[in-house]
Design goal:
Layout lengths: L5 H18 L10 E14 L5 E12 L3 E11 L6 E12 L4 E7 L4 E7 L5 E5 L6 E11 L11 E11 L5 E11 L3 E11 L2 E16 L4 E6 L10 E9 L2 E6 L9 E8 L15 E10 L10 E11 L4 E10 L2 E14 L4 E6 L2 E9 L2 E5 L7 E6 L11 E9 L8 E9 L5 E10 L8 E8 L7 E6 L5 E7 L2 E6 L7 E5 L1
């Protein structure tokens, strides 16, 4: 999604063609990608020096099921002027192989080539694979089926929770989580949010904002929030693309400066109970996964390093909780089991969670589903999903999964998408497939082989992994169709999502 010189483009044509051939029978599964889609992308660009700057994109397209993209439109933002595109129209082509891995070429300024992995529901996880020679853009994102009947301001109505995160021009991290009430006529009221800007944590109790769907044919809209982050007191301007009436992909459009971040994330409709949320809205297991970017010293290194965490938070519906988690900060792992804590939940969905001396804020979307933000120096931010009821064993993880590196925090992270098969074997299962890796040095598609073992006691879905995907790691099972993994041995870890 960034301009490359002619020589690099010629090299990439050869590399991408090889990637397509490696899929086997390219194009045989093109019908899997069909209809209207919205997408979001988080990434970084590098100019060959090893340093990186933040980059993000949101947009939409129509896939015809036969390998063609039409009605494409996207917005991008980054540090360089050439990285900012506003409502840029595009067309493109794609091919999906027999193994459900695809390659997509976008006809945009500078070109854009994506590798993606299809899911059973018609959505896809993707990475950018057109960097080479230390130059270009790397990152990951998701494409989700969009509902054109929701392309209007009037359809955005009710209570919404939101979460956005990103870096500023100095690569300092900021995250915001909050909630709003939309009136269906372009006004947000009853706003509340928590902001972590480079370790400075602030809570905003009441604010108003504005939104508008500006294009009812593409689902593109704009959103204006008050100055929630520090620095110059100016409004935060976002562009969004409608996924459906309950979900928007949003990206900040303000110029990126040493103090102004590029924030990207989602707005989700809250399923608010009559009378508002209460402690009963957290009433079971929730798998959480968070990403941060730590400064020097994390894991013994001298530069910035990813800080990632996954865990299981189990609430009892009356203000008590139990937390098990695994964290890796730059190769320095930490694990904790069975920590006891408390929580209080306001009727607008804001939850204050305390485990010992640690404090975490969450904004509830629906029972046991929430955005999480932590007031730490690495600005941990992420999401929690309700864990399916029942016990989990190795046989719970069985079948075909699309895998993805989510929100890479540094250039050293291995950024991949791919298709993998879990055999559900006991006591040790096998996860095999092909990874499509996007790296500054260029794309590659190695085979992946890993083992996994879901604990039988306790049968809470926590397990271990080994092999590909960062060496020794920990997995948390959300359901039979989804699990997350964090490596405990990788000095450049990320949260990995696997979903059927």
């Amino acid at each position: 999604m960034r301009k490359l010189n002619v020589l690099l483009i010629m090299c990439l044509v050869v590399i991408v063609a090889s990637t397509v051939r490696a899929q086997g029978s390219p194009g045989v599964n093109n019908a899997e990608l069909s209809g209207n889609y919205a997408f979001t992308f988080n990434g970084m660009t590098t100019g060959g020096s090893g340093a990186s700057t933040v980059f993000a994109a949101v947009g939409r397209f129509t896939a015809d099921g036969a390998g063609n993209l039409t009605n494409g439109e996207l917005d991008t933002n980054g540090v360089g002027p050439q990285e900012k595109l506003i409502a840029q129209t595009f067309t493109g082509t794609y091919q999906i192989g027999a193994d459900h891995r695809g390659v997509m070429a976008l006809n945009i300024p500078g070109g854009g080539t994506l590798a993606f992995a299809m899911m059973a529901n018609g959505n896809a996880k993707f990475i950018e694979i057109d960097a080479a020679g230390g130059h270009g853009t790397v990152g990951s994102g998701t494409m989700e089926k969009a509902d054109p009947t929701a392309y209007s301001t009037a359809q955005i109505m009710g209570d919404y929770a939101f979460g956005v995160a990103g870096l500023d021009g100095s690569n300092n991290r900021t995250a915001i989580a909050g909630r709003l009430t939309a009136n269906g006529a372009g006004t947000f009221t009853n706003g509340a949010s928590d902001v972590n800007q480079s370790g400075i944590f602030t809570t905003w109790n009441v604010f108003g904002a504005n939104y508008l769907v500006t294009d009812v044919t593409s689902g593109r809209g704009i959103m204006n929030l008050p100055p929630l982050a520090g620095g110059v007191p100016t409004n935060l301007n976002f562009v969004f693309y409608v996924v459906n009436a309950g979900k928007l992909f949003a990206m900040e459009t303000d110029a990126v400066t040493p103090v102004t971040p590029l924030l990207n994330g989602a707005v989700l409709q809250q399923l608010t109970p009559i009378g508002g949320f209460s402690s009963a809205s957290l009433n079971g297991g929730m798998v959480i996964y968070l990403t941060g970017r730590a400064g020097s010293g994390c894991g013994g290194g001298t530069g910035p390093a990813p800080n990632v965490l996954a865990g299981l938070l189990t609430a009892n519906s009356v203000g008590g909780l139990n937390l098990t988690y695994d964290e890796n900060c730059g190769g320095a792992p930490t694990s904790a089991t069975g920590l006891l804590g408390t929580y209080s939940l306001a009727n607008n969905g804001r939850a204050a969670i305390r485990v010992g001396t640690n404090y975490v804020v969450a904004y509830v979307v629906s029972p046991n589903q929430a955005f999480f933000i932590v007031p730490d120096s690495s600005v941990l931010f992420g999401f929690g999903e309700p864990q399916a009821a029942g016990s989990f064993t190795n046989s719970s993880v069985n079948g075909r999964y699309a895998g993805l590196t989510t929100t890479p925090a540094t250039l050293g992270v291995t950024i991949f998408s791919g298709e993998f098969t879990a055999d559900g074997a006991t006591p040790t299962g096998n996860l095999t497939g092909i990874q499509d890796i996007g790296a500054p040095s260029g794309p590659s598609s190695p085979a992946a082989n890993a083992t996994y073992s879901v604990s039988s006691l306790p049968a809470n879905g926590r397990g271990t992994t080994a092999g590909s995907f960062g060496g020794n790691g920990i997995m948390y099972t959300v359901s039979a169709s989804k699990f997350v993994v964090v490596s405990l041995s990788d000095p450049n870890p990320a949260v990995l999502i696997f979903e059927q």
